[in-house]
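Hi L.,

As promised, General transcription factor:
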Amino acid sequence: MGSLQESLELFKKQQEKCQSTLVSIAPKAGAMRGTPPKPVSSMVPNAKSSAPAVKFSNDTERLQHINSIRKAPVGAQIKRVIDLLYETRQAFTPEQINGVCYVDILANKAVFDSLKNNLKVRYDGNRFSYKSKHALKNKDQLLVLIRKFPEGIAIIDLKDSYTTVMEDLQTLRTAGQIWLLSNFDSQEDIAYPNDPRVNIKVDDDLKVCFRTMELPRDMLDIERDLQKNGMKPATNTAKRRAAAQILGIVHKPKTKKKKNEIGKRTKLTNRHLPELFKQ
């Protein structure tokens, strides 16, 4: 880099020397021929006096940046192009991609072929564009799609549909049109349609598990278990009990009732004694 800078400085000095020599020679030549001297700028082809001079240092920095991108690994160049397609959601020709993000697809066959075969890229023979799993454009199309999956659809399959899809999911949840629940096995959110007309199929194993599960008797334990599993309880029993103690209300823990046992105050009716009506 140092030798290149020195060569440039030497070249600029030579140019300045030539120009000063031309300036000194031009009046003499004009006087000898009887013609007025021409300005120096007219002697240089395509010279524009109003155009600012391009600093070599700035141009060198830009060229070095472009060169570093084109010498980067194929994977890094592909990611750069896909990021451009994802953020803009527009279709680009190879020349346009080169002009925007400096990845020369036409000069790098490995990058070109990888982009054509990439699952996140659509190529129509002329232009490249981003390809999401579900072709959605707005909130209405998003809701229609979610309603087609009564058993839930993963958010990861929706998040790249369009740029504001996550905001629209929250809007639909706030409006009560969908549910957003967490899947504890994969730690991913699932979107469910909140439509009473939709028949949701529930496995028999899940039904049995739900009906046989015994919950803690104290709400504090229930809230603690919810928080342990990453869910926010809808109640705050500790805060409620603290407020009740201030008012002098004593909390009485619930006791487990025995099933199928007739107490002293149990009201007996004919339905409890069907044998009385037997002849």
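The chain is about 45% helix and 5% strand.

Thanks again for sending the construct details.

K.
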